[in-house]
Amino acid sequence: MDISPLWIPIAGAISGTAMVVAVVGIVFWFKAREKELLFHQDLRVKEMEHQRRMKELEIELEKTKARNAASQAA
């Protein structure tokens, strides 16, 4: 099995190009993953703030009901 000396630079060029494409792909994948994690973190913070506001509104509603019940009883 003879390997032609012509195949060595061709294989090197193809391997080098594939390596560059792989490195660029990995970098873009990591950046996309980082953005995704930041998005999920921001979404979770907003969800927690919303739950806190809903709890505050629920407490305020209970206070208002208690005041109305007390004023009607008097």
Q: Total number of helical segments?
A: 1
Shape: rod-shaped
Unreliable segments of 5+ consecutive residues: none
| Percent range of helical residues | over 70%
Short summary of the structure?
The protein has 74 residues and is mostly helical. It has one helix at residues 7-73.
Describe this structure in words.
It is built from one helix and no strands. By secondary structure, the chain is an all-alpha fold.
Name a few traits of the molecule.
74 residues, 0% strand, mainly alpha
Question: What is the fold's blueprint, element by element?
Answer:
Blueprint: H1 7-73
